[in-house]
Amino acid sequence: MKRIKKGDQVIVIAGKDKGRQGTVLTVADDRVLVEAVNIARKHTKPNPMSGVEGGIVDTAMPLHISNVMLFNTMTNKGDRIGYKTLEDGRKVRYFKSNGEVVDV
């Protein structure tokens, strides 16, 4: 089970975008792609065969997973994650600060 999953609300804790929040779009190995965070400007050449216009395009680049924390809406801060098993046998993630279950 991963600490950060697709669709989670996260906050960046290190780097040039420190303090910004966003939703996780993809998780691949040790990298996460967060919506509207770590934007890079990419120069593209026009390609009329595939209908691509040339110019400067803003694209989101992946961050290392250690640079983001799951955002706790109760405390409005980033929070550490733990695991516990419920009475019905499900393994769920929970916030370490207040014990609130993340997965419902």
Notes on the structure:
The chain is mainly beta. The chain has a domain of 65 residues: SH3 type barrels (Roll), CATH 2.30.30.30. Helix content is 0%, strand content 46%. The chain is built from no helices and ten strands. The strands form three sheets. Strands 6-3-2-1-7-8 form a six-stranded antiparallel sheet, with no helix packed on it. The protein has a two-stranded antiparallel ribbon with strand order 4-5. The two termini are 15 Å apart. 13% of the residues are buried. The model has no long low-confidence stretch (mean pLDDT 95).
At CATH level 3, the topology of the domain at 9-73 is SH3 type barrels
CATH class of the domain at 9-73: Mainly Beta
Number of beta-strand segments: 10
Residue-averaged pLDDT, rounded?
95
Distance between the termini: 15 Å
Number of contiguous helices: 0
β content, as a range?
over 45%
Helix content: under 10%
Which oligomerization state do the chains in this entry correspond to? single chain
Q: What sort of overall outline do the alpha carbons produce when their principal axes are compared?
A: elongated
Largest sheet descriptor: 6 strands, antiparallel
CATH architecture of the domain at 9-73: Roll
Radius of gyration: 17 Å
**Helix and strand succession?**
EEEEEEEEEE
Q: What is the strand arrangement across the widest sheet?
A: 6-3-2-1-7-8
**Low-confidence parts, pLDDT < 50 over ≥5 residues?**
none
> What structural class is derived from the secondary structure elements?
mainly beta
